[in-house]
Design a protein that fits this description.
Length: 398
């Protein structure tokens, strides 16, 4: 069942969404498939690699850091600059813009912790590693990991919080003072050289603080979840009564097409996230000459911050996704992660590179690309304009 507050707000929404005059006929199989998409099936996020995931104090600390512009080289960029709460934690730009323009669209953070892989190509296998990558990325926050250590050391309140929350001694002033101001393995050449000159102990001290900060921010991001929507009430009403008028005529026709073989949408956009969390070639990499998932497989396996790494809190048998990662680059060429469709009307533009501003353009893309079966993973999709419009209306109801 849904929380009382959520149901109240959804019922209030019916003022703006009048009931349809006709309810579609649904088979038991269709009803079960629709029920599987309901938000009530979404389990609480679990990440064995992050032992702080459910710690309220660490979550609060992570939220403050998420909004702190000091975690950037120009002191103007925070995680929240690109992940805007009022836009479903995205930025509605074609391409992300931090310190400079990136080459991928900013994904929504709602339900982000429910995924198995992070970034459009799955370049990270856990959320805190994704956070750390964004902090260091020259196009995003461009903040080297030694620079982050100096940042914490400059604020006694942060030092006190850090030692209390992580039960870990923060390096002394003398230890921090011996380090260069900027240095990191993913920084520019001069900073990379400075990093290489550090002792193994200095690197480990720096990395442990860096990782703790990433885990704190990830713990906060893991609390960002979708609220129940009209579709969820529809799915519950349909399961109870075999019919429902909570979605209007066009939305119900669109839903029937969405879960049907004619469109194939639900083959990938399945489950309560409307995502199977896997990688597929839908033709977005063809024109962009972007090979997506196939380009990053080896780097994920070697990543010092992955689930099997020394900074992970997981046991090896809790890292099944990484241990059994698909290494077939050929099968994953041009493949990108299936995006969640929840909140989709608030997250335009669409695709991994933000190439389309409307869902109508997305529908046309699928129809066009499905005619290239040897170049994509798509089966043939041949929907009329009216059918496409119904699917778009259903998606907008999400």
């Amino acid at each position: 069942m849904f929380p009382h507050k959520a149901i109240t707000s959804l019922l209030f929404a019916f003022i703006f969404f009048p009931l349809s005059s006709f309810a579609q006929n649904w088979t038991q199989s269709e009803i079960e498939k629709i029920s599987s998409l309901s938000l009530k099936n979404l389990e609480y996020p679990v990440d064995p690699s992050n032992k702080y995931l459910n710690d309220p104090a660490v979550i609060s600390f992570g939220k403050a850091l998420f909004n702190d512009t000091r975690l950037s080289s120009n002191k103007k960029i925070s995680c929240a600059i690109c992940h805007i709460e009022s836009s479903a934690f995205t930025d509605n730009r074609n391409l992300a813009v931090g310190l400079r323009q990136g080459f991928r669209n900013t994904p929504s953070l709602l339900n982000a912790a429910q995924h198995n892989w992070f970034f459009a190509d799955g370049a990270k296998d856990n959320l805190w590693a994704q956070v750390l990558s964004s902090i260091e990325n020259p196009a995003e926050q461009n903040f080297s990991r030694v620079e982050l250590l100096h940042f914490i050391a400059s604020d006694q309140k942060l030092i006190n919080q850090y030692e209390l929350l992580f039960n870990n001694r923060f390096p002394s002033y003398t230890e921090v003072d011996q380090l260069p101001i900027k240095a990191g393995p993913n920084a520019r050449l001069a900073q990379l050289i400075s990093w290489k000159k550090l002792t193994k102990e200095q690197k480990d001290i720096t990395n442990r603080v860096f990782v703790d900060i990433g885990k704190a921010i990830a713990a906060y991001v893991s609390t960002l979840k979708s609220e129940p929507i009209r579709f969820d009430l529809f799915a519950e009403d349909l399961a109870l009564n075999g019919k429902s008028e909570i979605l209007n005529d066009s939305e119900q026709r669109g839903l029937k097409l969405f879960i049907g073989a004619e469109s194939g949408c639900a083959n990938c956009h399945s489950g309560p996230l409307f995502s199977n969390k896997e990688f597929h070639n839908i033709g977005t990499g063809i024109l962009a000459k972007d090979n997506g998932r196939s380009e990053i497989i080896e780097s994920v396996i070697r990543d010092e911050f992955n689930c099997l790494g020394k900074y992970s809190d997981a046991k090896p048998d809790q890292c099944m996704e990484l241990k059994y990662i698909n290494r077939n680059k050929h099968s994953l060429s041009g493949a990108f992660k299936t995006s969640s469709l929840r909140g989709i009307k608030d997250t335009a533009p669409y695709m991994h590179d933000g190439r389309y501003m409307t869902l109508n353009e997305v529908m046309e893309h699928y129809k066009r690309m499905s005619k290239l079966p040897r170049q994509t993973d798509l089966a043939t999709i041949d929907l009329s304009k009216e059918q496409q419009a119904d699917i778009v209306n259903f998606l907008m109801s999400l």
